[in-house]
Amino acid sequence: MEKPAARLVVTRTASSARDIWRRYRVEVDGRRIGTLKRGQSLTVDLSPGSHRVQALIDFEGSHPLEVNVPPGEEARLVVEPSEHLMPTFGLATARDPYLVLRPES
Question: Which domain of life is it from (predicted)?
Fold first, then answer.
């Protein structure tokens, strides 16, 4: 018997004007699953279990986030620009990434 699929929903906030005309790439386990405009959501069915999710723009991005999605369940994540000013000037560091990817609260 096959396990029911798990679902991942990634939403990009519309609260920041930074990157207003640019799209964020979303990758799961190193594979591109789609792009997000400001205020948009992306939904994808996955195999149940642990997955590595990351949001990217150009050569910058979020820290990878490990997400465990049980069979038939849904994981919801939010991506938004970091609040730090330095990443805006191309000085993103491992400590202060350009994007923040987090579980939806």
Answer: Bacteria
Q: For residue range 38-63, list pLDDT tens digits in order.
A: 999 999 999 999 999 999 998 889 99
Contact of 26 with 35, CB cutoff 8 Å: yes
Q: Which residue has the tokens 């999605």?
A: 69
pLDDT of 76 strictly over 60 = yes
Q: Which fold has domain 6-103?
A: Immunoglobulin-like (2.60.40)
Cα angle 87-55-104, degrees, rounded to a multiple of 5: 105
Contact call for residues 41 and 7 (beta carbons, < 8 A)? no
Question: How many C-alpha atoms does 94 have within 13 Å on its Cβ side?
Answer: 0
